[in-house]
Amino acid sequence: MFDLERWQEIFETLSKNKLRTFLTGLSVASGIFILVILLGFSEGISNGVKSQFEQDATNKISVWTGVTTKSYKGLNPGRYVQLKNSSFDAIDNQYGDYFEYRTKDYMIWGGAVTFKNESGNYRVRGTMPDNQFIENADIGSGRFINQSDINESKKVAVIGNKVKTDIFKGEDPINQNIQVFGMNFKVVGVFYDPGGDREEGQVYIPLSTAQKVFNQGENIRNMAFTVKMADNFDEAVKRSNAIALGVEQKIKEIHTVAPDDLSAVRVNNTLEQAEKIYSLVATIRAVFWFVGIGTIIAGIVGVGNIMLIIVKERTKEIGIRKALGALPMSIVGMILQEAIFVTMFSGLFGLILGLGLLELVGPQIESDFIKYPQVDFNIAITTVFLLVFAGAIAGFIPAYRAAKIKPIVALRDE
Amino acid sequence: MIQIKDLHKSYHMGSNSLHVLKGINFDVKEGELVSIMGSSGSGKSTLLNILGMLDEADEGQYILDNVPIKNLNEKIAAKYRNEFLGFIFQSFNLINYKSALDNVSMPLYYKGVKRKERTERAMHYLEKVGLAQWSHHLPSELSGGQKQRVAIARALASDPKVLLADEPTGALDTKTSYEVMELIQGINDEGKTILIVTHEDDIAHMTKRIVNLKDGLIIDDSPVEQIRASAHV
């Protein structure tokens, strides 16, 4: 194997049969290349989807209401289901033990927010302290809404980073006053959100304050909870589904909504969605693996086929070599060593090319659903060795058979 | 050098069996130049292949340079071929992607000779057959006669005890044939034992002894007055 003379002989043979060498190499290199790209993108998709879910807590259950579409217990359809503080309390009383965080919100979509001469329209949202964790909001400076803000209905606001850059123009917003619908609010904090501009273009104020200044009494727009995680994912999904169902029934009962009315009360369970998406990602990954392995198998069959043709084409040469005193094993060794060298070299070439492309193009991709495409190097190198090994096996059988042929038969081959 | 006693060989094709050699007896002494003649199907090529250990006899004794050749496995056969024998074929059998020089050094490679020495020795034999300036040409760039001379140089390269030539002039025109025969005679003059299979009378008469085969038996084995090929070139 490490005989220099043998290597010289092999390099000579390879360099004098360039087309053959090139074609063998091409089928191997392209197989590995495609596999690397596929695996890279499946990883990228999985990363992308994961980062989508980082926007909010994944174990979130949120409740929204709309207009009833069915008459129930003498009530007409077309009635708006108005959630109240009491609805929230009822849910929290019943399921509170399972909840980690809880919030109820009242929000106004285009609220005019002004600082000095700058102003803009932002979503103004009355909320509870726990919302920071439900929304995965990060406090950049200052603090979030706290319980004493709620208790005393303070006129304080926590603004998103986008609001800060839009209307503060580089000034430190903390302890400055902003006007919301002409009312003064003191900025106590700035937050960042993985959801980006859409989430950061918000102003949070205490819920109790919002209910007062917008004359909403006990009204709330929606509520959200996060469920304590169970030990394993399936368990968590099961529990969270059960709670979501219970919450929906409870709200419908309180507000006298038909149990089969789909639009009046909507309960959104992120964990269930997460599970669906994750299983989708797993499916995509499995498909990519399948295609990748199919490509590799095609590569192996290609190498095997080429080896078969090479041996056939060289039958006479093998006869000549044997007549000149070549040992059968040296014939097998020669063909195998050639096959291994070519598959190894071109496999690594395809690997480097694939990794290089991912490295180069990966960061350029600006899609929400593909992020950081990359390949586990160990997996990639393993597939190369697998291909080399399979190529060697594929080459060994015809080579062994050729070495067994009597030289007289091989020489007669035209 | 070669002793053969009661050699038999049959080929089996399906249910048919073809008895090709039906008891061959003959000896070749060192330094002889023998031609084996016979019409096609007489068994002459089979005999040569058995002598060359490319094929094995069913029955009988074959002793080459006092070594009994029997029950050969591939490994030993390869070793003996490399050590004892040099082959010259009708269709030259050069490796077409290797230069003349590399073709000639091939048996030395299998003998385990180092590259530098291999090249020197191969060059020496190429000079001997008069093709030194063609050493880096591929077989496809050489004429038939030149190819056969490269093949002869290759057969000589490992310095074998016996040269076996199967119709060495079969693919060549008369003039080239005589040139090749002149070379073979020259090699014989230096003491090398050579066996030639041929069906051409004029070629046979350029050897020192003609063995005539018919239907798998020797019908005539007699020395002849050697005609020097140089007289015809």
Main beta sheet of chain B = 6 strands, mixed
Largest interface: A-B, 27 and 28 residues
Low-confidence stretches of chain A: none
For the residues shown, what is the average pLDDT of chain B?
A: 89
The backbone outline of chain B, from C-alpha atoms, is globular
Q: What is the H/E order of chain A? A: HHEEHEEHEHEHEEHEHEEHEHHHHH
What's the domain count of chain B?
1
* Terminal Cα span of chain B: 31 Å
| Helix/strand structural class of chain B | alpha/beta
Q: Low-confidence segments of chain B, ≥5 residues, pLDDT <50?
A: none
The proportion of strand residues of chain B reads 25-35%
Largest sheet strand order of chain B: 6-7-8-3-9-10
What's the CATH first level of chain B?
A: Alpha Beta
Radius of gyration of chain B: 17 Å
Strand count, sense and barrel status of the largest sheet of chain A are: 6 strands, mixed, barrel
Secondary-structure element order of chain B, N to C: EEEHEEHEHHHEHEHEE
Tally of domains of chain A: 2
The quaternary structure here is heterodimer
The total of helices of chain A stands at 14
Description:
- The complex is a heterodimer of chains A (414) and B (233).
- The relative contact order of chain A is 0.18.
- Chain A has helices at residues 4-16, 18-53, 85-95, 131-134, 147-151, 161-168, 197-200, 207-213, 233-254, 270-313, 315-323, 328-361, 377-404, 407-412; strands at residues 60-65, 83-84, 99-115, 118-127, 138-142, 156-160, 177-180, 183-192, 202-206, 219-220, 222-227, 265-269.
- The longest helix of chain A is centred in the C-terminal third of the chain and has 44 residues, at 270-313.
- In chain A, the strands form two sheets. Chain A has a six-stranded mixed β-barrel with strand order 3-4-9-6-8-7. A two-stranded antiparallel ribbon of chain A has the order 2-10.
- Chain A is elongated and about 105 Å long.
- Helices cover 56% and strands 19% of the residues of chain A.
- Chain A is an alpha+beta fold.
- In chain A, a hairpin with a 2-residue loop joins strand 3 (99-115) and strand 4 (118-127).
- Chain A folds into two domains: 4-52 and 277-412, no CATH class; 82-254, no CATH class.
- Chain B has 233 residues and is of the alpha/beta class.
- Chain B is 34% helix and 28% strand.
- In chain B, helix 6 links the parallel strand 7 (162-166) and strand 8 (193-197).
- In chain B, helix 3 (100-111) packs across helix 4 and helix 5 packs parallel to helix 6 (174-189).
- The mean pLDDT of chain B is 89.
- Classes of the chains: A alpha+beta (414), B alpha/beta (233).
- Chains A and B meet through helix 1, helix 11, helix 12 and helix 14 of A and helix 2 and helix 3 of B.
